[in-house]
Specification:
The chain is mostly helical. It has 5 helices and 2 strands, in the order H-H-H-E-E-H-H. It has a two-stranded antiparallel ribbon with strand order 1-2. The two termini are 20 Å apart. The model has no long low-confidence stretch (mean pLDDT 96).
Length: 151
Amino acid sequence: MKTYFKQLFEYDKWANQILLDKFEKQFPVNPRIYELFSHTLSAQRVWLDRVLELPQSVAVWSERLPEEMKEDTENYNAAWQNFISGLSDDDFEKNIHYTNTQGDTFDTRLVDILTHVINHGTHHRGNIVTLMKEEGFVLAHLDFILFIRTT
């Protein structure tokens, strides 16, 4: 499982980088594009804080400049990769106890949290690509299978 999730987080970084490269060539007009991208990064950090049993270090809807998004993409991915590298096979089945942003407490298996983090990013990148299409961007191809073929 370790190899699988390390690969999924590499895919996540790859897909984010493609969008960031598009933003450098054509600045998005709709502020929702950057809001959603920033939100995906914040959510990654929030979940990392939870699995590391750290206090929440960012707001779920933090605003970031493009340079900060690029830096956080790199830093958060490195932190997730480091975390996953230190896991044993049994760790993936362990429950993580955490409190969400509404103050509710939960116990969720780590494997489910990791899956959620990846799916959350994919979901919002789909939202972002839809908004980019409305602005006439040449659309990014972010399919996982393309990542597999090109890396």
